[in-house]
Specification:
- This protein is α+β, with helices and mostly antiparallel strands.
- The strands form three sheets. Strands 1-2-3-4-6-5 form a six-stranded antiparallel beta sheet, covered by helices on one side. Strands 7-9-10 form a three-stranded antiparallel beta sheet. Strands 8-11 form a two-stranded antiparallel sheet.
- A hairpin with a 5-residue loop joins β3 and β4.
- The longest helix has 34 residues.
- It starts with 13 loop residues before the first strand and ends with a helix.
Amino acid sequence: MTDVYALQLQPGDVVGGYTLESRLGSGAMGSVWRAVDGGGNAYAMKILRASLSDSDDGNPDSPEYRAQMVARERLRREAVAMRKIRNSGVCQIVDMEIDDSLAFLVTELIEGENLREDVRHNGKYVGDDLERLSSKLIDAVHAVHEAGIVHRDIKTSNVLITWQRLPTLADFGIAVTAYDHSSTGYSLPWAPPETLRTGGAGGEAADIYSLGAVLYASLVGTSPFEYGYHPKTAKELARLIMTQPLPTIQRNDVPTVVHETLAHAMAPNADDRYPSALAFARALQQAQFDLYGHATPVNVEGADPYPSSIARRQITERPPAARQRGKHRKAWMVAGFTVALLTLFLAVFMGFVLPG
């Protein structure tokens, strides 16, 4: 049992063998702390708010008891989901305690901001940063789905950006197996139309939609339908998502094909979206190659880094930049050959005309 008086957690308190250093954030579910173990290694510790209550009458019919059970079940789901996934783009679990009076989950500590904060402080994504973000994040979602998990809450605040500018997917609190349709999830701005209409749970196609919405937000600074329509209320936002087309990205440096690829991922009908995260990645690779002559490889176990169409073209033709460099190299070779001929001619001429 944890001896800390839970309602008054302070830096320096010890919870489950970890020393709390500073509070990283808090919400309806609980608080997240930077904590260190006995060896000085730093982690992120999520502590349930429901477990902090000092009223524990053990009555299963009381609202407090039910709230604690729901919170602990959500924490258990998060731990089970995270333990199934092994991918550098997914936050890894280190330790957990669900049955103690103070329930907590310990994960690796990602030093950096979430994607929403990153865009606010460092600007909208473009070029190499955008390619890196989309490739790594889609790889992570593919790994989640391959483990039989549906995340159900992919949003900018759940994508952490490391100091190397790489995304890490976090917060699996409402994740479920792909076969469990008993609970719902998704935050409104990132929710696909089908979950808003029925109030039901979504599958992998719903994650694909939310993933497309997050990548869209990295380009414009806010969720897609807030960007295009400026709704005044949550109800109006939900109506827009269910009934209106995806707003066009108003940026001259974002090619039309990029918007079209994101729109495919966010198709109103779930059956019209990419069938998998890998298919989404392939479409972005193709768009990138057609635009710039190169593509960021995917890092998916069992899949080739590039689709066959790009792999063949990379062998048979060089990208535009390489062709341009080739032209310059050929021009220098011609110039060098010309200089060499002139030098030889002058040497022969001088030998005949000005004999020693």
